[in-house]
Specification:
- It is built from four helices and no strands.
- By secondary structure, it is an all-alpha fold.
Amino acid sequence: MDNELQMEYNTSREAMQIPEYGRNIQKMIEYAKTIADKSERNRAAKSIIKVMGQVNPYLKSNEDLTHKLWDHMFIISGFDFDVDSPFPKPLKEDFETGPERIPYP
C-alpha cells in the first residue's frame, strides 16, 4: 500500500530553535533558504519578518523589535541564511556558550 498517508509526528521532526514562533515560521525560513535568486530570497525574508512580528504581538512594545526579529530569523535558520539584513548578522559563537557560572557561597 504505497498510497497510505504518512503521519508526521513532532518527535520525528527537526527540533525547533525558537518554539514561540511555531513550526510554520521555521518551515517558511527553510523554504526561503532554497530560493536561488537572492532578490527573491530577500523579499521572502522581509515577508517572513512581517509574519514573525504578527505572530508575537507582545514584542511590539520593544523598541528594538525589527532587530530582534532579524536575529531570531538567523537563529532559526541555523545562521546560514544568505540574505541582506539591515542589521549585522549575529554570530553563532555568541549563542553556543552559556552564561558564566556564579559561584555558590
